[in-house]
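re: ur msg from earlier - yeah i can do the iron/sulfur cluster complex, just paste it... oh wait u already did. ok heres what im feeding in:
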Amino acid sequence: MQNNINSSIGCTVDECKYHAKTVQKCSLDEIQVVKHTTNATSKEATDCGSFEREH
Ligand code: SF4
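and the outut:
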C-alpha cells in the first residue's frame, strides 16, 4: 500500500504498484502520459507511461 495519495491524479489501475489502493488515486507526485501512435486520435491511443507491475 502506498502512503502518499496524489488527489490530482485519479487512476483506476489498481494493478499498478503506484496505485494508492484505498482510493482511486495515484501515489506518485507526477506521471508521464504517453501515446502509442505518432498522432494520437483517440483516448485508446494514450496511456500512463509510469505504470509498473505490482510484483
Ligand atoms: S503510475 Fe499510472 S497507472 Fe500507476 S497508479 Fe499512477 S496513474 Fe495509475
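cool cool. Residues 9, 11, 13, 16, 18-19, 26, 28, 31, 48, 50-51 surround iron/sulfur cluster (CB under 6 Å). ping me if u need the other ligands too
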